[in-house]
Amino acid sequence: MKINGIKENTIFIDGVWREAAGGKTEAVLNPATLEHIMSFSYGDEKDARLAVQAAKDALPLWSAKTARERSGYLYRAYQLMMERQEDLAVILTTEQGKPLAESRGEIASAASYLLWYAEEANRIYGEMIPSSNKGKRLFTIPQPIGVVAAITPWNFPSSMIARKLGPALAAGCTVVLKPAEQTPLSAVGLVKIFEEAGLPKGVLNLVTGDPASIGKAWLEEQDVRLITFTGSTEVGKHLMRSSADNVKKLSLELGGHAPILVFEDADIDQAVSLSLMSKFRNAGQTCICANRIYVQESIYNHFVKKLVEKVKQLKMGNGLETGIEIGPLIDNHALEKVQSHVQDAINKGASITAGGNRPSLSKNLKGFYYTPTVLTGITDEMLVMKEETFGPVVPIQSFTSEEEAIEKANLTSYGLASYVFTENINRAWRVMEQLEYGIIGINDVFPAAAEAPFGGIKQSGQGKEGGREGMMEYVEMKYISMGLK
Ligand code: NAD
């Protein structure tokens, strides 16, 4: 079986598509229909090490290319990606479940990182440092960090890869990539784009397969100098601990638990529609999506009523069908987590104001669906207020003062994104400065942009993706002190 030109061999090493060294395959499932889409090569440690060797061999030639040459490959890949937007979006929806319109948006967003870094490739500068010694000249030169291992999640299976490949390739690094086992096909589609763009062999290698054994090999390989990871805080901590022996550099984009604060001076209609989009796009499986909404007491009832009306109208179904706004969850594990969080909230006294169950099983809703849910009567002890639910469930709580809202928002070990709705510019500044988050949206819930530094603080990670800062993750600034005669 093949899907839009993608066949079974999904491992790409040194310019060749191969099966796993151990011959193993696994199934990719469509979460909307539970159908087996196709099999993919399930690689392990052996494939992972071969990929590192290929990336190491390709490094001297790739890093020696001019910035303009590297930029050209990225620009060509950007163009091809936009030409193939529809095909790539169909692959994405088929293996991941999000509505096709969202997949098209994700492909465009992924491509925008290739375009932006195609431009930024030409602007990686070092600097002259004024010396305190007349007989010396001090300066820095930027150099690629070397072989990069990129590990990515299933929730944005295309853009999370492009966000890493853009700056890594622009900086002159070579890459070994491992996508999530739920969504290998989007990664294959993206790597095929680079192959078609003429990227030299070994510069980008793809190993689909077993996370633990591939991860172990890359942690052990001395030549892997940076691990750039997007995924759960739990796996991020494991990578952090295990990379100590080789003192590898780490860039970590981890979990979040984003609060939305809605103040009584907000534009309520705007706050309702944007909160809805933030929470329910990608069926709530977004690292920066609203996990908790706090609404000021005086407008609480009004806000809840308006939000619930909209939530009840969301059209759920197979993302390939027209008009669908919310698709299935990624797998059974995700479904069980959502169900357990809702049950925990009910046990601790929450009320279900919308949803709170699985849709009745009809022909079209066989997959991992969960009805969009609003919970009220919330207390801070509930799991939904402490952990990522990663599903279409939103708890809403009221607050009385600005101080209380800030305190509640910061009551978490995560620090990825947070949002504020207010029309008062003084309040916006005050609140923004006190929120302990790497990203803050003020009357905005879509902060991600290729040109801006995206990243969390606290247990949401370290390092940035996007913008000038995103490039610096892949660069070593070498310092030179030169004595003059
Ligand atoms: P996950 O941590 O389970 O998996 C992420 C990746 O790590 C996958 O490719 C997986 O195969 C791999 N992996 C798992 N165990 C590994 C191991 N022992 N060694 C090496 N690799 C291993 O996360 P997920 O469920 O795929 O994604 C959802 C999580 O990602 C959520 O917590 C979400 O918030 C987070 N996320 C964060 C951002 C961000 O920018 N901060 C963006 C998207 C998703």
TrEMBL record:
It holds the Pfam family Aldedh. Keywords: Oxidoreductase. Residues 17-480 form the Aldehyde dehydrogenase domain. Signal peptide: none annotated. InterPro entries: Ald_DH/histidinol_DH, Ald_DH_C, Ald_DH_CS_CYS, Ald_DH_N, Aldehyde_DH_dom, Aldehyde_DH_Superfamily. Transmembrane segments: none annotated. This is NAD-dependent succinate-semialdehyde dehydrogenase.
